Amino acid sequence: MSQDLKRSEVKALITRGLVEAGGRYKELIKIFNLKNDDYHRFMRFLHEQNLIPN
Fold first, then answer.
1. Where are the domains of the chain?
2. 5 Ramachandran zone, left/alpha/beta (phi>0; psi -120 to 50)
3. Residue 31 and residue 25: Cα distance in Å, rounded?
């Protein structure tokens, strides 16, 4: 069974995380258990994949 998420599911997950993080992406990476060093890579990924919630 595949564990792939649909784009809409990823956007929903990011949106929910941002609500919990008070709209702060730096807090979102902590919620997603990423290192601070990964912030720029994470943001680049969101922009490249058009995953920034509106």
1. 7-48
2. beta
3. 10
Structure confidence at residue 53 (pLDDT): 80
Distance CA 11, CA 13 (A): 5
Report the distance separating Cα 43 and Cα 3, nearest Å: 22
Distance, CA of 23 to CA of 1 (rounded, Å): 33
40 pLDDT more than 90: yes
Residue 32 — pLDDT band, cuts 50, 70, 90?
Answer: very high
pTM, two decimal places: 0.79
